[in-house]
Amino acid sequence: MTTGLYAQALPTLTVKTVAEDDELLKTGIILLGTPPSTGPFASLYSNWWYSEPKSLTQFKVIVSYNGVPVTAQLTCQVIEKDKVNPLKTKQGPWENLMTVPKDMTSNFVCKYRESKPGVGVIDVYWQGPASGSPILSVGQFIADYILVVTFAYTVGHTIVYGTEMQDICVLGWPFSTDWKVVTKPDGTEHYVFADALNGFVSCEDAALVQKDMLGIPIAWV
């Protein structure tokens, strides 16, 4: 009697997202509008446009079930990648920084806007403190974030899930000096920056530099 192994094809939900803010570095960008107002770096970022917040970042998305685009329900999680200096918990002299992930989902709101089944955009809004609040209390949120989008689709009595990960870079202000202004129908203005990271290839490095400019020290554990 011959026995063999049989593969079982399980239903799958595939999610593909593309960042729209910085398609070169493949990251979303949010600006809190909190440049340094005092200290040695204040004069570098004294122009008014550095204080303009950008609270929206966007991602194109396609959701498919076994290759067919379908309408599914979205949930989002946002995790901050905070850097700390390990002192009491250091594993060795080589560990001068460590990453501490923090759930910051409550500071963000996700809206899925579908044009046809399975195809649309995800608008992600910053809902935490921004310009107008004390700079140090806002500046602590400058960091590199992980966006996790999960879609759920019901097939009969079964719920099928699909997940994708993206990056969101939250900065206090743009490093770029190349900007444009667009007037919206309600008369308010929207500011567009050519390159908010302006040469930084890592959001994490840019965030550490901005926190240092604001006088926010790296925490230690």
Tertiary shape: globular
Topology pattern, helix = H, strand = E: EEEEEEEEHEEEEHE
Compute the CA-based radius of gyration.
21 Å
Terminal CA distance reads 63 Å
Mean pLDDT: 90
Number of domains: 1
Main β-sheet description:
6 strands, mixed
Question: How much beta, percentage-wise?
Answer: 35-45%
The class by helix and strand makeup works out as mainly beta
Tally of extended strands?
13
Keywords:
221 residues; mainly beta; five-stranded antiparallel sheet; 2 helices
Describe this structure as you would to a colleague.
Strands 2, 5, 6, 9, 10 and 13 form a 6-stranded mixed beta sheet that branches. Strands 1, 3, 4, 7 and 8 form a 5-stranded antiparallel beta sheet that branches. This protein has a two-stranded antiparallel sheet with strand order 11-12. It has one domain (13-215). The N and C termini lie far apart (63 Å). With 221 residues, the chain is mainly beta. The model has no long low-confidence stretch (mean pLDDT 90). It contains 2 helices and 13 strands; from the N terminus they run ββββββββαββββαβ.
